[in-house]
Write a structure and sequence with these properties.
Blueprint: H1 15-21, E1 31-38, E2 44-46, E3 54-57, H2 58-70, E4 75-80, H3 98-109, E5 114-119, E6 132-134, E7 137-139, H4 140-157, E8 161-164, H5 171-181, E9 190-195, H6 202-207, H7 228-240, E10 244-248, H8 254-263, E11 268-272, H9 274-285, H10 291-305, E12 309-312, H11 315-324
Parallel strand pairs: 1-3, 1-4, 1-12, 4-5, 5-8, 9-10, 10-11, 11-12
Antiparallel strand pairs: 2-3, 6-7
Bound molecules: ligand PBG.
Length: 325
Amino acid sequence: MPFPVHRPRRMRLSENLRRMVRETNFSVGNLIYPMFVVPGDGIKLPIKSMPGISHFSIDLLLKELQEIQDLNIPGILLFGLPEKKDEVGSGAYDPEGIIQKAVAAIKARFPDLIVITDICMCEYTSHGHCGIIKNNQVDNDSTLEFLAKIALSHAKAGVDMVAPSDMMDGRIGAIRKILDTEGYSQIPIMSYAAKYSSSFYGPFREAAESAPQFGDRRSYQMDMANAQEALRECAFDLEEGADIIMVKPALSYLDIIYRVKTKFSVPVAAYNVSGEYSMIKAAAQKGWIDGTKTMIETLTSIKRAGADIILTYFAKEAALLKSRT
Ligand code: PBG
């Protein structure tokens, strides 16, 4: 007879008791802050669909990064918006491109900050898809060569880690191979291994101007209903040389994070995506929820599910809160 001998409430009676037995704590060291960099000078342009997040030109990005470093956030994930787009996304591998220039500038000023770049073509292509178009389809194999070229150009600019998010088959192997043959075998790959085709990317596509101009991404990103397939995707990427595997989005996919963490003994990242962020911000602005508490609950749940690393637009806010408590 458990009750009345057992009373779980005993251990919940005060904040200090709760702290003592708390099973999950995320720390600032687990967070990566995604940021958007744009050409120009003196630009800090708030992104309407993502309250608190802005587009930065390189000069003001550097100012912002001082704050990020002071908050002890270990790394950032960089997205770039190019000057102009074309069919093959050539802005993505231009040695003088926005990401290449930003990475070089950041590493010169903040050598210890882990700078990670998103490897994808959708911000750079005129059609907004993540690869090369052939016969109205995103062509897998010809895209690999471009992705490898993009990764190499980021490596040459001094990036610390690359994160391919395009969901082409074989891209981890292609990127690992070019990095290794060109003398960058020390650069890790964080693979967006289980990336689902998701409505939660809506605000990001406005921020990155990367919405597909025809069709959608369902022919390359995963079907939301599949879990076994996520494990296969992770296994392939690990065989091809991924160092970290990511599940994205996070909140509707906590079960996937759990399964991936249980099955593979490698660091697992989860991307708390734009829609997940903006829903909380919007509801908080309306006074319908407490934004700060919901943020902590969200980040804790992602950690509890098994993520070692959380990519989140809340990183700065969460780190600020932790520094005060
Ligand atoms: C690029 C990419 C996307 C996100 C990260 N990298 C958008 C997409 O796949 O359409 C989404 C991030 C977010 O919603 O916060 N392919």
